[in-house]
Amino acid sequence: MTINEIQDEIIQEFEVFDDWMDRYALLIEIGNELEEMPSEFKTNQNLINGCQSKVWFNAEFKDGKIYFSADSDAIITKGIAALLIRVLSGKTPNEIMETELYFIEKTGLQQHLSPTRSNGLLSMIKQLKLYAMAFNALKK
Hints:
It is a single chain. Helices cover about 55% and strands about 10% of the residues. It is mainly α and about 140 residues long. The chain has one domain (about 5-135): Sufe protein. Chain: A. A two-stranded antiparallel ribbon has the order 1-2. The two termini are about 25 Å apart.
C-alpha cells in the first residue's frame, strides 16, 4: 500500500464518527493495538523533545526501508504515534521525506489537539523525517 492509500484509509476510519469523543476513543484503541516497544529502546536518545508526555521512537533501516517502533506514557499520544507508524513504517527514506501527511488535517486531528499535543505531533513528524534524512545520507 502506498503512503497516500494508507492515509485515505485512516481518513475513512475517522469519518465514520461525527463526535470527537468517539474519534478520541478510536485513537486510544489504535494506540492500544501498537506493538509493545522493547524497553531497551526507551532511551533518552529516542525520546522526542517538544512533547508534553514521554514519547519514544526508534528507527531501523533494513533492505532500503525504515521500520519504526514507538511508545508513549499518554494514551492519546500513543494513538498518534501508532498512526504515524502505520503511514510511514516500511517506506523508503525518500518516500518519508517527500510525503505530505494530509491525514492529520483531514481527520480533524490538527484542529482537535491541545496546543501542547499539537506541538508534540509536529516534533514526532520532524523526528521521523530526520531519521529518513539520516538513513538517506547513509545509503549514498
